[in-house]
Amino acid sequence: MDLDLLSDNSKLLEKFPEDTHAIISGQKINEIWSMTKSLGLTSYLQQAIWLLTSATSVDLEQDVFGWMNSNFAVGIIPTNKAIMPELNLGLGVAVALETSEPTIAKAGIDKIENVIQQNLPITPSLATRAGKTIIEWHISDSNFTWTYNWIDNNSLFFSLGDSAINTVEDINNTSINKSSNFEAIADELPKNNLGFLYLNMSSISETINRLPFEAKSDISPEIIELLDSMAGIGTTATIPNKSQSQLDLLVRFK
């Protein structure tokens, strides 16, 4: 059955700032993982999973994917610094998750954090932003910062990238789902859907235009002009009936 994920995920989408470059929302990562396994994993991925489990005792089924059984949203957000300076792109990744199994989630995260501390020369620190306690993991002499906090008893928020959490916790930010561009696209797409993908082309174009000449040399002027003319792109997946699936795509121009 299709769900109104734009409404169901509104609490999660409100964590993402208006200039989020891209965001995808959906439900039940645990079922997506199970479906991926049923379709068959490559031998390299199977070996990697076996090595991870053998070396760390982290169980992907229970410690990672098992508790991801509700709504989720994943977005690419702007940051002050790039994770990889050589790319010269100030972007980070943010993930918001809901779970009906917070106890299992906390135990799984604790296990992963213990593995990190045992194998990498980093330790977590605590910070307070907007009245919330944020757990930060930062690798010295790098722009790699991983943070997370509990939004409420059943919701988690992760960010990857230097100062990404600062962008998210800026109380002056308008959330992505309340921006005029997002709302205009969402209003035209099916409300009851299995998932929603939104590309903020205005923000993406600004980032591309800030790239140094060398980085943009492989992009034709026609492509840049086309990207500059778009305000946003949205797409949803729906199943109108048992024998039919549907993909809707909307492009909004400036």
- Give the helix proportion (percent range): 25-40%
Whole-number radius of gyration? 19 Å
State mean pLDDT (0 to 100 scale). Answer: 82
Work out the helix count: 11
Q: List segments where confidence is low: pLDDT < 50 over at least 5 consecutive residues.
A: none
| Main β sheet profile | 10 strands, antiparallel
Give the end-to-end Cα distance, rounded to a whole number of Å.
Answer: 34 Å
Strand-and-helix sequence, N→C?
A: HHEHHHEEHEEEEHHEHHHEE
- Write down the overall geometry: globular
Question: Could you characterize what this model shows?
Answer:
The protein has 254 residues and is α+β, with helices and mostly antiparallel strands. It has one domain (5-253). The protein contains 11 helices and 10 strands. A hairpin with a 6-residue loop joins β5 (132-138) and β6 (145-152). α9 (201-210) runs antiparallel to α11. The radius of gyration is 19 Å and the shape is globular. It starts with a helix and ends with a strand. The relative contact order is 0.17. The mean pLDDT is 82.
Question: How would you sum up this structure in a few lines?
Answer:
The chain has 254 residues and is α+β, with helices and mostly antiparallel strands.
